[in-house]
Amino acid sequence: MQNLTLDNVQQLVGGTLIDSTGDRVGKIEDIYLDRDTRQPEWALVNTGMFGSKQTFVPLATASTTGGDTLQVTFEKGQIKEAPRVDADGELSEAEERTLYEYYGLNYGDSQSDSTLAEGGQATAGTTDRTETEGAVGRDTSGPTTDNAMTRSEERMRVQKVRRPSELVRLRKYITTQNVTETVPVQREDVRIEREAITDANRGDAMSGPELSEEEHEVELTQETAVADTEVVPVERVRVDKAVTTDQQEVSAELREEHIEVERGEGKGKGKGETIA
Q: What is the value of pTM for the model shown?
């Protein structure tokens, strides 16, 4: 088992969440990071049929085997009954407090032993300076200072999070259309032929009585077009996934420290010079 880090959490999106007994809970739709520490804090899981319900699960005690399966220390029933919170990209402090209380975890403003925040406002750790509304450094002079000053700046760190964008489903249905075709058909018609009495046909002509009444019938036939249907397979359709790459702009406001040299006599200030 491995603890969650920012490096291995990306492959869990789209993977499977299992409970403390190894029972499957649902598909992992997203991973929410702590705003300050950038560490994985919540998993958004589909627990209903066809993704009909989404539930947040804390990751403070979660672990992964290195694949796309994530195990938490809660039971499946408890996870499915968790309070409903809208998955709008960010959890408020009130929403986090409600979820932590439901799962029986303490909500606070400090980091946990696993470096995952117990509450929504985690601190970034201890350094030589603290950050409040602005940058507050050490005293201007004192026994703990030296003759150098550190200049820092913020740099943008771009990360990618995979989220569901669309659900594609193949559905087969039946429509009816009227199709008309023209086909050639044959029919028989009567044709009267007359021939003169000659030596060749005289015997047939004189074989009957000289005068008589009689009938001779000829049955005529014709073709009629009859429509019928048959089911014929014409093609197979499947849904596959292809990856395309788009360009997306990401912007952030970055702060940068500058150091200015002030020259003057004694404690009076002289002309300043910015060196960075």
A: 0.41
